[in-house]
Amino acid sequence: MNHWLQLLAQLGPIVLAATPLSALAPAVVAGIAAAEGLPGATGDKKKQLVQQIVSSAAQGANAQAGRTIIDPELAVQSAGHVIDTIVNITNIVHQAQDDTPSIAPTAPISADTPHVQ
Fold first, then answer.
1. What angle do CA 3, 100, 90 make, to 5 degrees?
2. In terms of CB atoms within 10 Å, which end of the chain has fewer, N or C?
3. Are the beta carbons of 61 and 26 closer than 8 angstroms?
4. 0.70 surpassed by pTM
5. Where are the domains of the chain?
């Protein structure tokens, strides 16, 4: 499991705990993990898979509650926005890491090291 997915798995349920969306957090994490495991799938295909899982989870939560507590269409739209945001942040982080210049390691300065003035 990659670092971002681990963070989402840990933080998602905590962030959503006080909302009706808490039931969707495990489904979102499972959906993202399933989508990332699809060999050769495009970003759009992966996003569609996660959105299908979110829709099913919302419908399941509604069925379990016996009433509509989560609008499945709104949940799907929200998942799409969240996925887009995660992808954008991941791209920013990767770009920043790629742009970071390599710095050659230096020896620590000690009392025995002559100082150049």
1. 30
2. C
3. no
4. no
5. 3-89
